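Sequence only, no structure available. Ideas?
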Amino acid sequence: PQLTTGPGGRPEADGKEVLEPEMFVVMNRFTVKEGKEQEFEQRWATRESKLLEQEGFRFFHLMRHDQTPDDAVNYISMSAWESRADFDRWWSGKSFSNMAQVQGSLLDRPLTRYFYQAKLVLESEQGP
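Reply:
I predicted one. Tokens follow.
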């Protein structure tokens, strides 16, 4: 593993100022109806995605909770982007509309979305 920024792979930190963001991360939290988990995963796996073609896109993960969640959220998706502007461009374009097909009747409630600035990225040579 190696740090990806700063001199010698170290971030340039002075102890006073916050680190510059290295990427923009979007987390979506889903509460999938009981018995609909397989269909939810299948829709994600088979949907036509244009993410790899999007400027600034870095990676995507769909994660399932490995135990009974205490907050009913049993899936999280995470996408990483070079910048907020790259994400916003994708979000406002036609490519995003395809994702809406994954939701709908499979969810107990609307998804919740959170945004983060990644301040320090540690990756192996194989990537995320």
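The mean pLDDT is 81.
Hope that gets you unstuck.
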